[in-house]
Amino acid sequence: MVGTPASAHRLAGSEQGAAGIEPLAAPAGQGKGAAARNVGRGKPSAFDRGLASLAQYQARTGSVTMPRSHVEEIPDGDGGTVEVKLGVWISNTKTRRAKLTGEQLEQLAALGLDWR
Fold first, then answer.
1. Measured between alpha carbons, how far is 48 from 53 in angstroms, rounded to an integer?
2. In terms of Cα–Cα distance, which of 116, 86, 82 is closest to 102?
3. What is the pTM of this model?
């Protein structure tokens, strides 16, 4: 709308959830702290979800090669499942491998992805 302040176009928190809009991630530089906070809460990090889905896929197929579009369902710990876009996760993780810890690289290598 022309002439309407930008703030008038923002959705309230409840409207954002109804529209399927997720809150923004923590700003760059705060990611490590955010991941560490998830550890104590029982909520697995994105890396842990990706690693679990990769382990499940590898156990089922004997391979770690898949199309980028592959989606893997893993248990969420509450009796349900969560979908992990595993092909995308692998691609993104490989691109960002310089930011992974030594332990994370070892976990990936144990499953057959040795990018060191």
1. 9
2. 116
3. 0.63
